[in-house]
Amino acid sequence: MSDSTLTVECAAHGSCIATFVCTHLSVGVGCGFNHPDDPDDPYPDSWCDACDALYMREGDWTEAATAFADVTLLCSGCWVAARSRNAPNEWTEGLSAPTTESEREGLVERCCAEAQRRNDHSDAATSFLAFPRWDFDASAKTLTFSGPDDELVADVEVIGSFTERSNTWLWGWANHTLDPYLVGQVARLETFGFVRGWEALTTSEQRPSSLEEAWHFAALATVLTEGEALYRAPMEDHLHTFLLIRRFRDRTLSPTA
C-alpha cells in the first residue's frame, strides 16, 4: 500500500507519495487496473488484468505471481496517470487477459469506426486531407500539410509501416532505425498486446500482413492512445508509414507577391 511518510522525487510531479504497481501498468495502456478495496488508501498497490489472472490462479502473491508483476515504484502523480491510461473504458471494458478472438475482432471493428470518425471530424475542422503537399520533420516530430497560401502543422508519432514488396508490417517501436521519441505513446501498445495475449501487437520483427490489417493496427493505436487523427504517408512507391496525429495547429503564410 502507499505510505504518506515515504516520498519519491519525480521529474514530472515533484515530491510525491510513493506507490507501487506492476510493471505493465507503468508502461502500458488499456491493461486493466486492479487493487484492494481500501477507502483509507488513496493510492493502493495496483496491477493489470494479466497479473490479476495469474494471482487468481495461484491463489496468492506467490513467487511466480510476484516475479510476473515485477513491481515498480511510482510517484502518486504517475499512479494517477497509469490509472487513467489503464482503467477500463468504453474501448477496453470487458476485455479478457488473454483476449478471445471474438473480443479482438470486436475491438478492431469499434476502433476502426472511431478512428474514421476522428479523421472525419479533424478533416471537417482543418481540411488536412485536401492539402496537396505534406512534409515529415523527424527532428521536430511534426507533419506539415501545405498549399499555395497556408500551412497546417501537426504533432505526430510513428505507428508503423507496411510494405507492398513483401506484404509485411513493422511496428514503429520495433523499427530500430527510428528514435524512440518518434514513437512516443504508441509504444505502450506493445504492453497492451502482452497483457491481452495478442501476439500481432507484440512482434518485434516484420510480420506477414495486408494493407487492411495495417489500417486495423493503426486504428487500434489511434484510439487506445487517444490520438486526434490518423494519416497514411506514402514514403515510397511500396512503403506506407502510418502516423498518429496528436495536435493540429494553423500556421498561415503570407500570399506570394
Key words describing this protein structure:
three-stranded antiparallel β-sheet; 7 helices; single chain; 257 residues; alpha+beta; seven-stranded antiparallel β-sheet; 27% strand; 10 strands
Tell me what you see in this structure.
- The longest helix has 26 residues, at 101-126.
- This protein has helices at 23-27, 49-58, 63-69, 76-86, 101-126, 188-195, 211-224; strands at 3-10, 14-21, 72-75, 133-137, 142-146, 150-163, 168-171, 207-208, 229-234, 239-252.
- By secondary structure, it is of the alpha+beta class.
- The chain is globular and about 60 Å long.
- Strand 4 and strand 5 (142-146) form a beta hairpin.
- Helix content is 32%, strand content 27%.
- The chain contains 7 helices and 10 strands.
List the helices and strands and how they pair.
Blueprint: E1 3-10, E2 14-21, H1 23-27, H2 49-58, H3 63-69, E3 72-75, H4 76-86, H5 101-126, E4 133-137, E5 142-146, E6 150-163, E7 168-171, H6 188-195, E8 207-208, H7 211-224, E9 229-234, E10 239-252
Antiparallel strand pairs: 1-2, 2-3, 4-5, 5-6, 6-7, 6-10, 7-8, 9-10
